[in-house]
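Project standup — Tuesday

K.O.: blocked on the structure for the chain from last sprint. Re-posting the sequence here as requested.
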Amino acid sequence: MPPAPTRVRWKRGKRRVAHRHKRPDQLIDELVRDHCGMWGTHARGQVWIGATRRQAYLLEQTCLGRRARGGAERGVPLTPNGTGIELVVRVCCEDAYYMCAILGVLRVSEAVEGREMEVRLGTGEREMDARALWKKFRRECGHAFAMKCAATIHFRLTGWLPRSGLQYGADFVLYQRHPALVHSDSTVTLVPDAAARESFKVDAAANRDVAFAHGWPDWPDVQATSRLAVQVNKKFIEAHISAPKNVDWDDPSCLSHVWVNETSVARFNALRHLDAYESK
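H.V.: unblocked you, prediction finished:
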């Protein structure tokens, strides 16, 4: 994984602390090398992992999950990993698919509530494979999952650690190290292009309501998010999602036909920009 392309914005006093921790790419290598094949349980719109302390540390430091607190995992059947369940980590759908299909470190089973909570390992099989997992997440989240998954994979492969940008009115915020050590660099809003929007309209009706309920950002939303990004000292990036009109969103292979193009959006400053133009 290549390093993120900008200067690290350390939090006060955290630069020295960071030297005690490995870089995210080194932690990912350890996760793939030493902890391949972890089991997770899909329940309540997330994947829950009963992890050892080391596994939980690796997942948290690479922004691939957050520790479940306050007994939030109560009622979810967990499969022990390694020496047993020491901590529980919850993982969002996009990161869970990334861990399963791209890193190959996670196997997911589904929790079914009947007479009692039990683990159902796929449909007549031991686990849900990447295809079954994709369809499960698509049914729950619609096109929001497909777009966020494509963006998650794109940003992680270019060296960033994406996290939810809900607090900034965006889809993602991008970090270079764990949020306890650094400030986020950018906020990201996902924008599907015209062809992608057309492919959403001709998609299966089962996902249509979920997709359109989320809506797509319009120019006033972009302006508001851009202004907020300036106020919190962050860059604002529009991630344009491009896809053919006839792409099959129910097939995970659609990711090979989806492109993510980044556009940096900045507010125009007459004095600064005109001076820079006249100096050329």
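K.O.: great, moving the ticket to review. The chain has a mean pLDDT of 83. DSSP finds ten helices and eleven strands in the chain.
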